[in-house]
Every structure is written in C-alpha cells, then in structure tokens.
Amino acid sequence: MNINFLYVFKILSLNSPTKYISVKDFLVSGETFDLEYNSDLELLKTVPAPPQEELSKYYESDAYISHTDDRKGLMQSLYQLVKTWSLRKKVSLIEKQNRGVGSLLDIGAGTGDFLVAAKNNNWKVFGMEPNSSARNLAKEKGLILESDINAFQNQKFDVVTLWHVLEHVPNLDEVVDQLSNLVKTGGTLIIAVPNFKSYDATYYKEFWAAYDVPRHLWHFSQASIKKIFKSEFSLEKTLPMVFDSYYVSLLSEKYKTGNKFSVKAFWIGFKSNWLARKNKEYSSLIYCFRKA
Questions:
Q1: How many helices and strands (H and E) does the chain possess?
Q2: Which H helix or E strand runs over 202?
Q3: Does the N terminus or the C terminus of the chain have fewer Cβ atoms within 10 A?
Q4: Residue 229, domain CATH
Q5: Residues 6 or more apart from 2 whose CB is under 8 A from it?
Q6: Per DSSP, what are the bridge partners of residue 123?
Q7: What is the C-alpha to C-alpha distance for residues 285 and 242, in angstroms, rounded to an integer?
Q8: What is the pLDDT of residue 292?
C-alpha cells in the first residue's frame, strides 16, 4: 500500500462531508441521490452508493451510449460523430505524451474504438471493460478485453488511459493505488472526467447530465484530481474537452424541459467554453500525468 493510497483512504474515511445537491437518475431508475461535498479533497460523492453487486442494473439502458455503437436518433448520431473526431485527437495525444508508440492499457474501454484506433497506429493495446455487452462488441472488432483490472496486476504500461471512467469506480482509493502500479516509471497516465465547477454544471444544477447518478459515484474538480494523484504522479498538462459542454447541455436541457433538441443548449455549451477560456473550468477536462 503506497503513500498515495493511504492519503486518499484517510480523507475519504475521516472527513465529515456536507450535502451539496440532490440529483435524480434520469436515465434508468428515477431514484434520487445526494451529492456530498468533501472539503479536504474538493470532491463530491454520490450517496447512498448502490451496492457493488447492484451497480450493473443502473447501466441497463439502450440510451447508455458508451456501451453501444448505435447511431439511431439525434443524440446517438452526434455522439458517434464527435467520437470519430476525438479518437484521432486521443491517439495523437498519447503519442505526443509517450514520444512515440508503445504499450497502452485503456481502462473502461467500452466497445473498444479507441484501442482499435491506437492499434491501427502500431500501439500494443490492452483493455479492461466490465460490461459484457460492450466487451462482445469489442470482440467483433478483434479485441479481447478483460473484465477486471486485476488481470493486469503483474504488468506495466507506457500509457494508461481512463476516458470518463474514474467517476464510475466504486473503490476509488483502491483504483488510485492500482494505477500507480500499472504505469511504468516515466510513463503516462491520462484521465478524463467531468468538472462539476464548470459553468454548464452551475447553470443546470440538479439537471446537469454529467452528474449521471448513480453511475457516477464521484464528481471531480481540478483540485481534487491534483490532490488524489499528487504523491505518485506529476501533472504535466490539463486539456479541455470542448465538445462535452454541448453534448452535456443538450442532455441537461432534455432532463430539465423534456425537449429532445434545444438551441438554448448550444448557447449554454458555447458560453461554458467561452468563460472557461479565462478560468479553465471546462465541462470536462483531460489530465496528463507523468509517473515519478
């Protein structure tokens, strides 16, 4: 157990959180959950967190896009269109950070499109995805994904990525510890997560789609990410995911008003990105770490 793990475990266990907001699960159950604020880590936690053995039922929806390749409907089409563009950007990013190709582990790989793109650029790719339906779709693309991160406990990689995954893990402290063991010394860890301090989060409040309770168990700020990983990694750069504000705002507007399409959502997404040019509080952020 390393120092970083001990630090996170202590904070998560001993800090007295305060209620931040109540949020409804608009996607599957209709249940309401509280988000509690941890002032030491500047982090929100979903409570009550469903038991780990029951989490899978909250993903059982055709509208949960990251586990499908569906292009039917406006939201799915927009998502897949942006994903095609972002895959090229992601592969370019990992090659710049690694200064060339190498070994890559993608945790929460979904249907495997990022790994396919990296493999096509001569990366040696590995992936983990707990959802069986997503793994089956990845298998059709020639990828064999593991269902558990422990399958890689004796391996180290040049690059480890978690694209909108860290917010889903029930055992945050354990995963943080595992990540430090998976990345080679001098290697790269890339984490992308929503930012609850963005303008679109502030505007939509309990309707902000990126809260996505209870699938999202943790809700990060820039400060929380830096504090959680500071012992084992150095933060080299933080990058915006500018399309996320538009997509999240479209979903948020749907949750708030029932409208499947809203011009206002694009305005909120644009305003969020515009304001973030100064304060850097984009709707979602990519953190690029180097293993000490």
A1: 9, 10
A2: helix 199-204
A3: N
A4: 3.40.50.150
A5: 177, 180, 231, 232
A6: none
A7: 9
A8: 83
User: Reduced to 3 DSSP states, what percent helix, strand and coil does the chain have, rounded to the nearest 5?
Assistant: 45, 25, 30
Weakly modelled stretches of the chain, pLDDT under 70: 1-15, 63-81
Tell me how many domains the chain contains: 1
Element (H or E) spanning 236, and its range? Answer: strand 233-240
Distance CA 47, CA 182 (A): 29
Q: What are phi and psi of 276, to 5 degrees?
A: -70, -15
Note down the domain range covering 237. 3-291
| Dihedral angle over CA of 188, 103, 216, 240, nearest 10 | 50
> How far is residue 12's CA from residue 252's CA, in Å, rounded to a whole number?
29
If you count them, how many residues does the chain have? 292
Three-state DSSP class for residue 279: helix
Question: What sign for the dihedral angle of Cα 166, 170, 173, 176?
Answer: negative
For 17, the 3-state DSSP assignment is coil
Beta bridge partners of 221: none
Residue type, 285: L
- Which tens digit of pLDDT belongs to each residue from 149-205? 999 988 999 999 999 999 999 999 899 999 999 999 999 999 999 999 999 999 999
Nearest to 123, CA basis, from 150, 153, 82, 93 = 93
- Would you state the pLDDT for residue 56? 87
Condensed to tens digits (0 to 9), the pLDDT of residues 58-86 reads: 988 776 555 455 555 656 666 666 777 88
Determine the distance from the C-alpha atom of residue 49 to the mean position of all C-alpha atoms in its chain, rounded to a whole number: 17
Q: Residues 6 or more apart from 244 whose CB is under 8 A from it?
A: 194, 210, 282, 283, 284
C-beta neighbour count of 262 within 10 angstroms: 16
Paired strand residues for 190:
161, 288
Q: Exposed, middle or buried, 53 (CB in 10 Å: 0-12/13-18/19+)?
A: exposed
